[in-house]
Every structure is written in C-alpha cells, then in structure tokens.
Design a protein that fits this description.
The complex is a heterotetramer, with 2 copies of chain A and 2 copies of chain B. Chain A is α/β, with parallel strands linked by helices. Chain A is built from 14 helices and 17 strands. Chain A has 2 domains: 135 residues, Aspartate Aminotransferase, domain 1 (Alpha-Beta Complex); 257 residues, Type I PLP-dependent aspartate aminotransferase-like (Major domain) (Aspartate Aminotransferase, domain 2). By secondary structure, chain B is an alpha+beta fold. In chain B, strands 1-2-3 form a 3-stranded antiparallel β-sheet, covered by helices on one side. The chains are: A alpha/beta, B alpha+beta. Bound molecules: pyridoxal-5'-phosphate (PLP) (2 copies). One pyridoxal-5'-phosphate (PLP) sits at the interface of chains C and A. One pyridoxal-5'-phosphate (PLP) sits at the interface of chains A and C.
C-alpha cells in the first residue's frame, strides 16, 4: 500500500478538523483534494510569470505561453497521445463532451441517425446528446445494464448498426464503479466505421489510459478529479477528427485572419480554444500530472484495489447495507444504502465523524431509476485514503443504524 | 447540540410513520416542491372551505427531516384559516433559521420543537422547510386564482 | 493619484527582475497582474475548503457551495445587478458571448434577421456572431467609425431598423480606447424592442458599471482582466431574458430531473452552468472585486485618467510616433506606432527596459484594416502603474528610434 | 548579447531595402507562410529550371527580423539546386535555434551571421525562420507535384 501518512503531508486540507475530528475525505469521485505542489504551481505562476499567452513579444508573455503549451505536452504524454496537437483544454469534462457533441454533431448528424450511449452515463455524457439530438433529429439509443450493473454485451451487438453515427460511453462508472470493456467496444465501433468517444473522467486519475492503445477517436477528462484545479478539462481527439470539425466557440486566440464578414481559423488545437484560456488551470493540471506520475499509476491502482476490496468486505458484514454495482473488478468507489435510512441522513451523521461522503444521485439519475432508489451513499477513494478511513466509515454506519434503530 | 438531537425520537417517529400521507382528489390547493440541493420532492394537496383548511395530505420521498417536518406540519394546520396558516409558516421559518427561538411551553410548538436540532445543521434547513415553502406557494396560487 | 508604491507591495510579480530591470507592466488590457489577496484566496480555498459544490451534505461541500454562491452575490453587487440569479459564471468574456449568441440566436434568429455590431469589436464579439449568422441565415451589420475612431452616430440610425434582432457592442474599445455612448444606444435599441448586449470587458475593471442604470439586457466581462484569476468570466442577463433561453451546454449541475430520453433543467443561473464549475476561479474573482472596491472605482478612474493623459502628452512630443483613437475621453490605454518600425521590434526593445507591452492586432483585425496598419503597439494601464512607468516607456521608445535611425 | 546586436547594421539594411521583393508570374514554386504567434505573413515565388532555382522573389510584411531574413535568404539561394537549398535550410534551422554555431570565416554565412542575435531572443526565432519554413514547404509541394 502507499505510504498514506506521508502523502497526507502534501495535502494541507488534512490539517482541517471537522466537528472535532480529523477530516476523512471519501468524495474523490466528485472532486479530489489538492497537494501543495499543485497549489504552489498556481500561486507561483501568478507571483512570477503571469501574462496572457500567445502573441506577446515580451518576457513574461513568452514564459506564460511556454508554460501553457508545456502543460499541453504533459497532458498529451500522460495519456500517450502522439502529439500535443490532439489536446484541447476545456473547462471540464462536461465542456469537452459538449464541444464534440456540437462541433461534430451539428456538422455530421442527420435525422434518424443513431447516437449510441449507455444506461450508466453521467448526465454530462447524456444531456449534451439529448440537446444535439433535438437539434439534428438524430436518435439516442442506449446499451442497457445486466443485473450486475455491467453492460449487457449482447445488447451492444443489437444496438450498433449501419445507422449508428457516434458512440460515447464511460470507461469507469462514477456511480456503480463498473469498468467497461471499452477496448472491445472501440474495436466494434470501428468495424462499423463509427467514431467513438470515451468518458475517462473516472479512469484517467486512477489507472493507466493509453489513447493509442485504446484507439479511441475522442477521450475526455477533468483536472479537478485528479489533484488538479477546477476550471480545466481535457479533450483528446485524433488529429484528423479534430481537423474535420468546425470551431465550437468563436473569439480571440482561435483565429488567423479576421474580416468583418469572414474569418480564417487557426490550426488545431487552438481552433477550439476561444478567448483567454485558463492558463493557471493548465499549469496546475500539469503539476497534478507530475505528482501522479511521481507516485505511479500502478501503485495507485494497487492501493485503491486494496481499499475497495476492504470496504466491500466490511460493508457486506453489516446487516441492512445494500451495495450497488459489480462486487469484483470495479473502480475505486462503493455506492450503498442503509435500509430505511435516507442517504442524506447518512451523510449528515457521517459528517459528525469527520467523514466527507456524498449522498445523492451522483449525476446519474437513470442509474437511480434502474436501481429503483432515490439516491445512494457513495464512498470513493484516492491516494490519501487508508484502511483506517474505512474503519471510521464503518463505525459511522453502525452509529447511523443505532440512531435509526427505531425506524427499521 | 449533537447529531442525536437532530434525530430525536419525535422526528424518527414521524419519519417512520408519517401522518397525512396520500392524495386528495380535486384539491383546492395543490403544489409541488423540489429541493434543488438534494433532490427531495413533495406534493401537497388541501381542501379549503370558507378559507379554512379542512384536510391536507402529502406525498413525498426524502430524508427523515423533510418527511417528519411535512408530517408535523400537516397535523398542525388542519382546521386553521388561510391567514393563520400563512402566519404560522412565517413563524416557522423564523424559528428554523434560528432568527427566533422556538417557544417553550407551547402545546402547538411542542412537537415542532423536535426540529430545533436542524438549526445547527444549516444545510438541512432546506429539508425542514421544504413542505412549508411548498404549502406557502400553493396558498399563493390558490389566492391568485380566487382573485380572478 | 493612487499610492502606487504601496499598491505594488500587494503584487508579488513586481519583485520580478526582467533583463536586469524592474518589471514595468503595461499590458493590463490583455490581462492584469494579481494581488496576493487574490492568490491567497485561491490557495486558501484549496488548503481549507475544497470540495465540489451543490448536492453535498457534508461540511466541506457546504462551505465550498456557500463560498461559490457568495462569489456570485459579490459579482452581482459589483455591477449592481438586482439579483444574483442574473449572474452566470463562464470561462471568460468570450464564452459568455458565445453562450448568448448560441442560446438566444439559435432560438430566435431567422434568415435575414439582422445582428448589429460595430467595426471596433474584439474578435470575441465578432466571430461568435459570424458563426451564428452562418447557422441561422441572419445577417451581420456594422456601425462604422468616424475619422476619430468613434462610432458614427448617424450610421447607427441608418443601421438599426425593424429587421434588427440583436445589438452587441463594446463599451470601451481594447484597441482604440474609444468610450462608446452605450446608454444612448441601449435606449435606441429598446425603442426598436431589440435586445442588446454590452461587452464590458475593458470597462468593468476600470469604471463604475451599473447594469440597472444602463438597462442593458446582457453584459459580459472577464475575471483575469480585473485582478482575478484566469478561467472565470461573467455573463449578466436580465432574469426574464435568461429564462427565455434554452441551455447552452448540458451536463451535471444544470439539471433537476433526468431520464434517458428527457430532462428537466434547473432554474437560472444554474441552467447555464454545466459540469463542475471553476470554483476557485469564482472565489478568486470575488477576492479581486473586494480588492478593487477597497481602492475605489472613482480613485482608479482618476488615477488612470492622469496616466493616460500624461502618456499621450509625452508620446505626442516624439517625432514619428502616431497615436490611434480619440485623444480625449478615452479608456486607460494608448495604441501607437513608430514610423518605419514594426511593433514587434518595438516590443522586443522595450522588453530590454523591463517594459511588458503588447504588439499586435489586439484581437481587433478589422480595426487594423481600418487604420491600414499591420499591427500597433499598445500601452495599457492599471492601478499599479505610475508616471515613472511612462517615463521608462518614453525612454524605450527613444532608444528604439535610435536603433532604427538608419531606417527612417 | 544585447538588443543592439539583434538589430545589427546588416539586418537593418536588409529591412530598409529588402532584396528580391516582388512577384514572379507562373512560378514553379509558390508558398504562403504565416506566423501564428505574431501575424506576419509572406509569399514566396520561385522559377526552377533543371532543378536549379533561377529566380526567387517574396512579398511580405513584418518585423525587421523576418524581412531581413527573407531578403538574405533569397539572395543566397539563387542559383542553387533544390537539394542544395534543402540542405541549406536544414543548416540554417540548426544555427538559428542554437543547435549549431554559425560558421566563422564563411563567405556564404557572413551576412546571415547577422541574425545570430536572434538566438538569445527565443520568441523571435519564429520570425527569422518564417521565410525558410515557407520555402521549404514550397519545395515539398513542387517535388510532390513533379512525382505525379
Ligand atoms: C473588449 C474585449 N472583449 C472581449 C475580450 C475577450 O476576453 P477573454 O479573452 O477574457 O474572453 C477582450 C480581451 O481581450 C476585450 O478586450
Ligand atoms: C463519469 C463522469 N463523467 C463526467 C463527469 C463530469 O465532470 P465535470 O463535472 O468535471 O465536467 C463526471 C464527474 O462528475 C464523471 O464522474
């Protein structure tokens, strides 16, 4: 396991005392905490190098441009993209998906074309497609779940066909923890010549993601879920796919030549980055990637496997706790409910133990409908969590059951 | 004030077996409420005659706080005039946000005082007020319709 | 004048030595420097309060939500919006304009409807309209400039008519410094019942902007040009106008109820904020607003007037320097050229004096075409600039002339 | 290395009166270049006969560095074979990025060495290379066309 005590020293927030208790943060799937290396990278940028990027011929502007473009290079290497031209910085994963849905969809979707998603998509990989379907007349199709919360692979074969014009799906479900066989589905999509996008928001922070090996056409993730700051996300796209897309937003920085009645756009990736970018966000993300690399994806994955396994074991022992999603081979999170207790109440009681845990639909209401629950409690892990954290979680759950004993 | 006080016996009893759950056909007052911050929702139905709330029921799903609050509220306002109810809602809002103290030795407020614990959990205030806000909206709509 | 020495103490970057010289930063129209109060607000958020906003029932999430929504309230008060529901956080001014162009335009523009802009718009208030015109068949019209670089007011009356369906224009030109009579134009637009948007990116940082007094329907600005961080911008919209617009992007946070085939959106302003927002960006912007308020808009305006007047006086004295834009009543910036010297070369030489100054088209190529120059040099001022800075600028310009003496 | 070295006499002379400015009708080689980072642009025209650049001209607007570099380049490659030119461009790129030293005592490189100052101003390297990159692209296009 990782040396959690040592790692925690890098994260100032763990000095916080919540309700008299040490903070135990179990909501990394919503957003992760930030190491001082990331916080300082941002501060230092503002203290020493701040200037707008591109088109400045003075020292600071040259520095900030180099730092910003270097962050792009670091992001490219992190997912093994063959070129930084494939990396577009966005606000978050959500914007990256909207960008593709709009720039690709408005250009290429026709009425009755089919967009193939799954039943387990985050709202961010569902609503943009609902909106574009309405605009273009395309139709949404969904791959359904089997009773274990995995994709029904027979259903994929039924749903993909010559009308399918785009596939987009999540690699690791933020709600069930399911790990999808994306490589298989990418291959399948390509046999039908269909472009495919991977929502890697919950996978890139935790496991090795290699876009060349996957051969996906697009892939997205968010900085704030991988130790980086808010306000920065990444769209990876194969160069020829990005080239084929018109710009999403218009504005400064994304143009070459502008006249009142026409404009000539810059090459990728800048064509998709209108206006002053989140420079400090990109620099913070680069620092986060360096931090993750210094720990090592293999080690992270191993550490989280141990935590997740332990959490499931302990939760299983408690009467009246129902766990959702596949029990084996899952991402570093566990969603569950305590019989007769609303998740919101669980979260309030756990907060008294210093445990920050999410209660809600986790932006996956279709999964709640499928589970037939209004909401779940979700514990999600990262490099700063230890087995002790899970012990406290378990104690909190037991206390919750005690408080609500009269109800069950 | 600890979390045990939040989940007092009275709150949990109402949560376990909420009063006045159900629908009313052809209600004079109907309103839907939604707590954007946690997703709880509620529907309130009431029969009004001579400006008096003769019957009231609710349907909802949600946490112990929102459900018990709705249960107690519906108990307490039955038989009150609309003006009395509006005043009561106003008062409740002041208590639950900590602006005023919950009255002691008041029979009417005896059960509701069980929600006192919420004051120390600001994020839960919205849960406790959901039913009250929703009813308030329903009365407003009803009165506007009357005017026309 | 402001006590610049004291103000500079708040800005760590002024400890930077550039080419052996103290940094003199004259590119605030591109982006401003950041006071430590802003840098610390961001760091402290990550050190003590970081969590995702909305829907969390634990302490940190409650705190971060309160801080984020409080930032919205502070932004609303800063421009005297009647409600924080009118404030949508975006990445930058550019995104705010794209949001309106798309959400309003796709919904309401029909072929041959006219969108009225001006010849002096920043690319960010031009390209989004070119794109939407192409999508909807609407036509762009432009109010032209008179020979002083001011809007030709007779031309406005010619261009606005019953076909006009939207007006969007800049309040202070980032390229010429022109201050436009926006209040007059807003009134005029409203007599034709036409919605009007103000690009206040260069005005909000420097002068009092009161949206209720202006009565504009939309207004946009960027955090990074007013001491705030990159990655955060503001769209102000009258509530009923925002209510009438469909969402721009889809995703988490902006929904109430979601099913696979339909969704119900949250109320404004959240309807327009899809995905995890730039939380630290909003908090940093709030800190920037507090800092600006502590200095006072009146004092800032007065200070900048003195700087700008002095700069123009000194520049006018130098043979072969041509100044662009109105000489009186202008924003805190001066664009100019030195005869026979390319702006890029000017900027490189000034950098040797520690002077950070922009050379280029300043994202206003149509103005360059109008001026018939490839580019200009632009000095732009803010609260940390002093008359001494302008002295150094003038020395640098004289040196440039010396170096290029053989050329003229 | 100071800014005065960047704007040496040779550079300024070429900037003041650039050589080989103009268009060539029906050129075998034609290419347009654009410096995204500052907006400078250039057009290059060349006549090729028996694989030799017989004539070359350029049109462009831009800074002293980009204009003087284009002026010197066009002077130097006239009469060279395409292979020689390609080699020359490769060499120039190595010098201007600081990867290799500018040769001393070379007549061919004498004037070009005036651009040495650019190495210390990395952001200006793009200005100095604009004409060279553009010509390189033009030769590539020409050779591809020949192959068909
Ligand atoms: C007048 C004006 N409008 C819009 C913008 C665009 O701002 P941003 O790049 O922050 O979106 C700018 C900044 O360059 C500007 O000066
Ligand atoms: C699987 C998945 N996709 C997309 C998102 C959206 O991320 P963001 O809110 O950063 O855009 C999330 C985060 O909640 C997620 O878990």
């Amino acid at each position: 396991m990782l040396d959690v005590a040592k790692i925690k020293e890098d994260f100032p927030i763990f000095q916080r005392i919540i309700k008299g208790k040490n903070l135990i943060y179990l909501d990394s799937a919503a957003t992760t905490q930030k190491p001082k290396q990331v916080i300082e990278a941002i501060s230092n940028y503002y203290k020493y190098n701040n200037a707008n990027v591109h088109r400045g011929a003075y020292t600071l502007s040259e520095e900030s441009t180099a730092m910003y473009e270097n962050a792009r290079q670091i992001a490219a290497e992190f997912i093994n993209a063959s070129s930084s031209r494939s990396i577009v910085f966005t606000r978050n994963a959500t914007e990256a998906i909207n960008l593709v849905a709009n720039a690709w969809g408005l250009e290429y979707f026709k009425p009755n074309d089919e967009i193939l998603l799954t039943q387990m998509e985050h709202h961010s990989n569902l609503i943009p497609w609902q909106l574009i379907a309405k605009k273009t007349g395309a139709k949404l199709k969904f791959i359904y779940l089997d009773q274990n919360g995995k994709l029904d692979l027979r259903d994929i074969n039924d749903k993909i066909n010559k009308n399918t014009k785009f596939v987009s799906l999540v690699q690791i479900s933020n709600s069930l923890g399911t790990i999808n066989p994306v490589k298989y589905i990418i291959k399948l999509a390509h046999t039908y010549n269909v472009p495919i996008m991977i929502d890697a928001t919950q996978s890139v922070p935790h496991t090795n993601v290699d876009v060349q090996e996957l051969d996906c056409d697009f892939l997205v993730f968010s900085g704030h879920k991988m130790l980086g700051p808010t306000g920065i996300g990444v769209l990876y796209g194969k160069e020829d796919f990005l080239d084929k897309m018109p710009p999403y937003m218009g504005g400064g920085e994304m143009i070459n030549e502008v006249h009142l009645d026409w404009a000539d756009y810059r090459s990728i990736p800048w064509k998709f980055e209108a206006g002053t970018p989140n420079i400090s966000g990109a620099i913070g993300l680069a620092a986060a990637i360096k931090y993750i690399n210094s720990i090592g994806k293999k080690n992270i994955e191993q550490h989280e496997k141990t935590l997740t396994k332990f959490a499931i074991e302990e939760l299983t022992k408690i009467d009246g706790v129902e766990i959702y999603g596949p029990l084996d081979d899952r991402g570093p999170l566990v969603a569950f409910n305590i019989k007769n207790v609303h998740p919101h109440d669980v979260s309030t009681i756990l907060d008294e133990f210093g445990v920050a845990i999410r209660a809600g639909h986790h932006c996956t209401q279709p999964i709640m409908q499928w589970l037939n629950v209004p909401a779940t409690v979700r514990a999600s892990f990262y490099i700063y969590n230890s087995l002790d954290d899970i012990d406290v979680l378990i104690r909190g759950i037991k206390k919750t059951k005690e408080i609500f004993a009269s109800v069950s | 004030m600890s979390v045990e006080d939040l989940y007092s016996e009275i709150v949990l009893e109402h949560y376990k077996e909420p009063h006045n759950v159900g629908e009313i056909e052809y209600p004079e007052i109907f309103a839907k409420g939604f707590n954007e911050s946690c997703g709880d929702d509620i529907k309130i139905f009431a029969k009004v005659k001579n400006n008096i709330i003769e019957d009231i029921k609710f349907l909802g799903k949600g946490c112990a706080i929102s459900q018990s609050s709705a249960s107690m509220m519906t108990d307490l306002i039955k038989g009150k005039t609309l003006d009395e109810v509006k005043e009561f809602i106003k008062n409740f809002n002041k208590k639950i946000t900590g602006e005023e103290e919950f009255p002691e030795n008041s029979e009417e407020w005896f059960e509701l005082s069980a929600l006192k614990g919420v004051i120390k959990f600001p994020i839960r205030v919205k849960c406790a007020s959901l039913a009250w806000h929703t009813l308030s909206q329903g009365i407003k709509d009803f009165e506007n319709k009357q005017k026309k």
